[in-house]
Amino acid sequence: MRMKLALVLAITAGCLPTTQFHCETDNDCARSGASGTCEGVGFCSFADSDCSEGRRFGDFSGSYSNTCVGSTGSDGGMDAIDAPPDVPEPRACFGGTGAYGICFDPGPSGTVNLTGTLDTDTDPRCVDTPTEWTTAAQAGACFVTGKTVDITSTLAVTGSRMLVIAGRTINVTGVLDVASHRGGTKGPSSPAAACAAFPTSPAASGGGAGASFMTAGGNGGLGDGGALAGTAAAADAAGPLLLRPGCTGQSGAAGGAGAAGSGGGAVYLAADTLTITGTINASGAGAASSTNTAGGSGGGSGGMIALRATTITMNGRVVANGGGGASGTNNAAGNTGADPTPAQPTVPAAGGSATAGAGAGGAGAAGTTAAAPGSAASMNNRSGGGGGGASGYIEVSIAPTGTGSFSPAPQIR
After folding, report:
1. How many CA atoms are closer than 13 Å to the CA of 383, on its beta-carbon side?
2. What's the pLDDT tens digit per position in 30-43?
3. How far apart are CA 15 and CA 29, in angstroms?
4. pTM of the model as a whole
5. Bridge partners (DSSP) listed for residue 269
6. In Å, what is the CA distance from 9 to each residue of 4, 12, 44?
7. pLDDT tens by residue, 154-174
8. What sign has the CA pseudo-torsion 143, 277, 118, 321?
């Protein structure tokens, strides 16, 4: 593999050349057959028992050359320390190899506190897209970086691009909200271009199906006289290879059908150390109510959350649940499907309740509970309920430590 990094010769008038070698991974560090470590400042260190941390920077490490890593060593010299938070590293890479590996040159610096709102299309904190992201054929994203990134209150994210946050340390003590909300905002990049078509469309007064993702959405309920209901698309059981948001539910039949629930958004957190004591929410939205004898619409599926770090400490909640389907109608307005509640990650979002012979909406998927179908109409001039939305996808690079809750359960990749 071609080395991505090279020796940099800096020559100034009247001075001898100074040679520096910036590393990207441990594989870039070798000396006389011995392997080394690529430290956070982008220089190689090698084993040295005279240093308190057991490692010393090599000859080509700029101002760190031949100094110990960590605290003062037995050689009595001042040891190298990481660059101060406000000084960019020469180069910093996150996410390992493959489709999620990204590098920034220079590396991120400073402490960034993300609160309020963030539009992935217009926010000035979005930096240039890393070459590796484009090469991997990942969809468009807003990249926000900092040596330390803190989310201390609620950060509500919208926009047509996905969100990627990268830093040496990321702390989520507040709420990172990339969910979609009934009658409100859509999560970033929702819906996914990869969403499969619904195999069957509802007819007359039939209910629409919930959106599918990692599991299948709930089918719609039959309408008056057995009117055809919508059926959900097949689940993506293998899981996505690239970052993507969730899918939108199916509209109920006939005019007056309420808006189907939108799918949750997509977010990727890449760090050395990731700590979550708050909430990350990428859930789908519940469906809006229908009117007249229109069928209830389906709930949206959860979106996608990808977490990659050397250390993941999880004592909060990471949620990508499905939204509830709306009920059918009885010549008046039906009832809405609920949005998932992140504080209750394994409790399904309720479907709209049935009234006077109309079909109830199906609950969304949560935890190990699959999305429920909408109920059929049981009286004339009534319509079927919409199906619940499916669960989204949560991917982690290593098994997290801590006592927090995931819904659905994360996949290690």
Report:
1. 42
2. 877 778 888 877 78
3. 27
4. 0.80
5. 165, 307
6. 16, 10, 17
7. 999 999 999 999 999 999 999
8. positive
